[in-house]
Amino acid sequence: MKKAYLPVFLLLPMYWTVFAQAATVDDVRVWRAPDHTRVVLELSAPTSHKVITLAAPNRIVVDIDNATLKAKLTQLDLQGSPISRVRSGIKDKSDLRLVLDVNSDVKPRSFLLKANQEFKDRLVVDLYDKNTSQPVVKHVDDQSLRDIIIAIDAGHGGEDPGASGANKLREKHVVLEIAKELNYLLGKEKGYKPVLVRTGDYYVGLQQRRNIARKSQADLMVSIHADAFSDHRAYGSSVYALSRRGASSAMAQVLANDANNSDLVGGVSLSDKDDVLAGVLADLSMSASLDVSTQVGFQVVGQMGKISRLHSKKVELANFSVLRSPDVPSILVETGFISNPNEAKKLSTKTYQRQMARAIFNGITSHFSTSPPHDTYLASKKRDSNLHVEYVISRGDTLSGIALRYQVSVSSIREKNALASNTIKVGQRILIPAS
Asked: What is the pLDDT of residues 326-381, one digit of tens each?
């Protein structure tokens, strides 16, 4: 009798092991980025998968082992993506098959993410556009005057929400609004050309953010964040530059670790081999960019102190991955602690977002007005401002007489001083342009 029951008893653990590994797809999300589409499947448990590319018609097949579908595919927002439809079926009686019908040629890449405090296990499928043309970078010749290029990086995005505050306030939304406002302000300012690293709610890897700034030939990269801390009493805005030897404060190290971990959401390794391989040339270049970063950061933190409480009045140093670009000066701006109820309330308003963007704008323009790159419009303007004489109008002076004395034209004096006519007054100060 005992021998007859023994095989059944031995089979029971095997049955429960298989049952425990079964997973359900509880949610499906689609994010569109400029160069790829991300499909995220939220899983109830870890599993394995396989991705197959098929043609005529074009489709991407995702087979998920021992899984079932709970999410509704009919409610997916596929607008702007190459996916025209998502279908599901059962394969080999126990596996889930998802079919992504695509209307263009794409290259898939997939990876699994382990569950964390905020998300369940996830399967991420990225569909990269094959026919996307690369951005053309215009190189300015020595005789031309170029704009100062500012790369504006709104932290996090897409599947990486960043820090969270009360009433479901998300860091990724707050910093994108501040970034867009900064982009607007710089776009209106003559002599500047802003470049948004991300323009919508999608994720950009940390290394890719640096690459976008580099390809744009940026004179400065500004990464905007609004972080959180375990102690809700933590407060204050601050500015960080890169430290190659460690953080300048305990808080700087905590924030750096948190920001650097965001690349785990993108499934990208954080081993920055490029910096190691760059060698001596990178060290020389980085020394120069660090100097500029610190100078800009000093101006920005001074302006931010006019509208908010500061966590630190100096430019902090931390080893943020997004700042590790040896040839592009970079700063990271913490606009406040979203975990602090008072600061979260301010950060959620359009008025404060605009004030913060204006403070960052004022800090940037304050630096470059005194230290512009030599081949830019602002540098030319600064040189021109130094090539004039200030003259105080005395009794009996005429504009034509002053022009004759300094051997310049009347029209050039009027243009330099924005004079509507030749009329001048005693005591009036005017600038005489160089002859």
From this structure: 678 889 999 999 999 999 999 999 999 999 999 999 999 999 988 898 889 888 87
Instruction: Answer yes or no: is pLDDT of 19 > 60.
Output: no
- Determine what percent of the chain is predicted with pLDDT higher than 70: 79
State how far the Cα of 417 lies from the Cα of 430, in Å rounded to an integer.
6
Supply the mean pLDDT for the chain.
Answer: 82
Region at 79 (left for phi over 0; alpha for psi -120 to 50; beta for the rest): beta
- How do 192-196 and 238-242 pair as beta strands? unpaired
Average pLDDT over residues 293-303: 93
Q: Report the run of H or E that residue 431 belongs to, with start and end.
A: strand 429-433
Q: Show Cβ contacts of residue 170 under 8 Å, excluding neighbours closer than 6 positions.
A: 161, 162, 163, 164
Q: Give 297: exposed, middle or buried? Use CB within 10 Å, 0-12, 13-18, 19+.
A: buried
**What six digits make up the tokens of 376?**
């830019």
Q: How far apart are CA 110 and CA 60, in angstroms?
A: 11
**What is the predicted pLDDT for the residue at 288?**
62
Phi first, then psi, for residue 21 (nearest 5°) are: -85, -10
Contact (Cβ atoms closer than 8 angstroms) between residue 361 and residue 299: no
What is the reported pTM?
0.68
Torsion of CA 358, 359, 365, 369, to 10 degrees: 130
Q: What six digits make up the tokens of 173? A: 């939304």
Total number of residues shown for the chain: 435
**Secondary structure (H, E, C), 248-270:** CCHHHHHHHHHHHHHHHCCCCCC
**Helix-, strand-, coil-residue percentages of the chain, each rounded to 5:** 35, 25, 35
Give just the sign of the alpha carbon dihedral 391, 394, 399, 405: negative
CA 248, CA 289: separation in Å to the nearest integer?
18
CA 185 – CA 192 distance, rounded (Å): 10
Residue/partner pairs of 352-358 with CB below 8 Å, 24 or more apart: 352/307, 353/174, 353/177, 353/178, 353/181, 354/181, 355/307, 356/178, 356/237, 356/304, 356/307, 356/308, 357/178, 357/179, 357/181, 357/182, 357/184, 357/185, 358/181, 358/185
